[in-house]
Amino acid sequence: MNEMRLLREWDAEAPPLTDHARARARLRLYETMTAPATPVAVGRRPLLRIAVAGVATAAVATTVLVANDSSPHTRPVSATAVLRGAAAEERRLEKPIAARDDQFIYTKEIIKETPLGGGRTRTYVDENWNSVDGSKRSYVSELGHKQWVPVYGPGQGTWPPSKWSELKLMPTDPRKLAIDLRDMGGKPDYTKPMKTGDWPMVQYFLSGLLRTPVLPQGLRSAAYEALATVPGIKVVPGQKDADGRAGIGIRFVPAPGASRSPLLVFDAKTYRYLGMRDQRTAGGKTYEQWSYVAASGVVDRVMERP
């Protein structure tokens, strides 16, 4: 496309953007693309296309149905309580991962997809081998479509970072993590208070971070706790995960005209994270999706499993 060629050549001699600066620029582009005048179909996996809340409001508490061993009962629970409970459960269950630069992060993700309005459900098993330091080709699967991902060139990268060493640099203190995400591309100012307009971007990047199947110890629980401080999140009652287990949904309130945000589902009793519900549109059809990570670990080579 001529437009893409022009974009590549525009200011070609300028220093390459950092991963953080590129992510911020992509977010601005995404917000423009999802404006009411330009409807856009949102895919399942692209992290930089997660819908974000454009306005910050108070976290919403609601009454959800929670099943116990005898009979169901109701109790009021807030999004903050669920996310903090998820952080505590993550710390209890988390096993430290020590990954060498020459290894690969393996994940096995199950995706169940049904056409909106009814139809046959298809199940995909996506296995991925991502290079720990980005120096080797990765092998990934997207709804059953398998491909090799070449080594990134100078100035190239992703959000969240694909390199384990970069993920390990991210703070595991929830407050500092939120500020680091707010101040991407520059030095974080931990003395500067968060403003209402800061939260949509922080919320967006935290959501992307949580979609990464494997994170360094302490980072996922910190992300849950950071999300618990974000205004504009709400509980969605009566949810089940892909295997039919009772769950509590957490969703971010979108801006008027913005695409619907993904639904994070947590166990109704323990608040352990169960998976994600989302939609994608392709070929003029919209699909409801459930996804969850069935296995993960560190391996020495592509096609090896933990």
Describe the protein's topology:
Blueprint: H1 2-9, H2 19-33, E1 61-66, E2 73-78, H3 79-93, E3 104-115, E4 122-131, E5 138-142, E6 145-149, H4 164-168, H5 174-182, H6 199-210, H7 219-228, E7 233-240, E8 246-252, E9 263-267, E10 273-282, E11 285-299
Strand order of the largest sheet: 4-3-11-10-9-8-7
Helix content: 10-25%
Q: Globular, elongated, flat, extended or rod-shaped: what is the shape?
A: globular
End-to-end separation in angstroms reads 42 Å
Query: How many strands in all?
Result: 11
Number of domains: 1
One letter per element, helices H and strands E, the order comes to: HHEEHEEEEHHHHEEEEE
Q: Largest sheet, described in full?
A: 7 strands, antiparallel
Strand content: 25-35%
The structure class reads alpha+beta
Give a brief description.
The protein has 306 residues and is α+β, with helices and mostly antiparallel strands. The chain has seven helices and eleven strands. Helices cover 24% and strands 29% of the residues.
What does this structure look like?
The protein is α+β, with helices and mostly antiparallel strands. It has one domain (2-96, 162-288). Helix content is 24%, strand content 29%. It has 7 helices and 11 strands. It has helices spanning 2-9, 19-33, 79-93, 164-168, 174-182, 199-210, 219-228; strands spanning 61-66, 73-78, 104-115, 122-131, 138-142, 145-149, 233-240, 246-252, 263-267, 273-282, 285-299. The strands form 3 sheets. It has a 7-stranded antiparallel beta sheet with strand order 4-3-11-10-9-8-7, with helices on one face. Strands 1-2 form a two-stranded antiparallel ribbon. Helix 3 runs antiparallel to helix 7 (219-228), helix 5 (174-182) crosses helix 7 and helix 6 packs antiparallel against helix 7 (219-228). The chain is globular. The N and C termini lie far apart (42 Å). The relative contact order is 0.22. This is CU044_5270 family protein. InterPro entries: CU044_5270-like.
